[in-house]
Write a structure and sequence with these properties.
By secondary structure, this protein is an alpha/beta fold. It contains ten helices and eight strands. The strands form two sheets. The protein has a five-stranded mixed beta sheet. The chain starts with a strand and ends in a 5-residue tail after the last helix. The model is unreliable at about 200-263 (pLDDT under 50).
């Protein structure tokens, strides 16, 4: 098995799941640049790669649609201009200006420093954006799992990932390690060409096409949101690559979103 790395943000840095030779070893990085220093073939990251100038990314809207009632687990990447803000208040004003009046969640604001980190290294061709909830839904084949904050949800994640790698070693505390390993699973699929968009490694990353990072206007984003029956904003075949949003990787620009796991 070719070496791959799955990375998820955690308090004080990043947790990494390095998979090589059918085994996983757990890593901790202060910065995403440290993770990129490892000599691995693919690096999956649970963080946006490629940001819109205005509006929403199609891959985020599609990811939410795939998760159905669990769609709040996917946050909407902010427009690039928000990264320049120094305070939440300033970021909120920029976000409303660039999204047609939509508010910025505190959760998303707290992720902005890590989004900046990834944005600075997004040209690394090994990077693929992955959403672990989509990865796990694909890996299990039965849709979204129970919340990872519950005992049942953690047990389900451990069971699925143990089906991929029999020995998970000493898991890091919390749920970030499991997310990182799910991300590694999608990165491995992307590298192996099993995800719908895996062969298209251009664009802003995550496994798919550059089109996946194209802006949605506020009206289009609403029309494409979970529960909407509107077909006016459905993603075209060229946007989708092979057609399905990968569970897991939002394309190299939302590969995960589109790759059924590769995310």
């Amino acid at each position: 098995m070719t070496s791959v790395l799955g990375v998820d943000g955690c308090r004080g840095g990043w947790v990494g799941a390095l998979v090589e030779g059918g085994r996983v070893s757990w890593r901790r990085f202060a910065t995403i640049a440290e993770a990129l220093a490892l000599p691995v073939a693919a690096i999956g990251v649970d963080m946006p790669i490629g940001l819109p100038a205005t509006g929403r990314r199609r891959c985020d809207v599609e990811a939410k649609s795939l998760l159905g009632r669990a769609h709040p687990r996917v946050f909407l990447a902010p427009p690039r201009g928000v990264l320049d803000a120094a305070t939440y208040e300033e970021a909120g004003g920029l976000h409303r200006e660039l999204t047609g009046g939509l508010g910025l969640s505190v959760q998303t604001w707290h992720l902005v420093p890590k989004i900046r980190e990834v944005d600075a290294v997004a040209d690394d061709p090994r990077l693929v954006e992955v959403h672990p909830e989509l990865s796990l839904a694909e890996l299990g084949g039965t849709g979204p799992l129970p919340s990872k904050k519950t005992a049942a949800g953690r047990a389900a994640r451990v069971a699925l990932l143990t089906g991929w790698l029999s020995d998970l070693g000493e898991l890091p505390p919390g749920d970030d390690g499991l997310d990182a390993l799910a991300v590694a699973w999608s990165a491995h699929r992307w590298l192996a060409g099993r995800g719908p968009d895996a062969a298209r490694r251009t664009g802003v990353r995550r496994e798919g096409s550059a089109d996946a990072d194209r802006d949605l206007t506020p009206g289009q984003a609403e029309a494409a949101a979970p529960g909407s029956r509107s077909r006016s904003t459905s993603v075209s075949s060229s946007d989708r690559g092979s057609g399905t949003i990968a569970p897991g990787a939002r394309s190299r620009v939302c590969s995960a979103c589109r790759s059924g796991g590769t995310t």
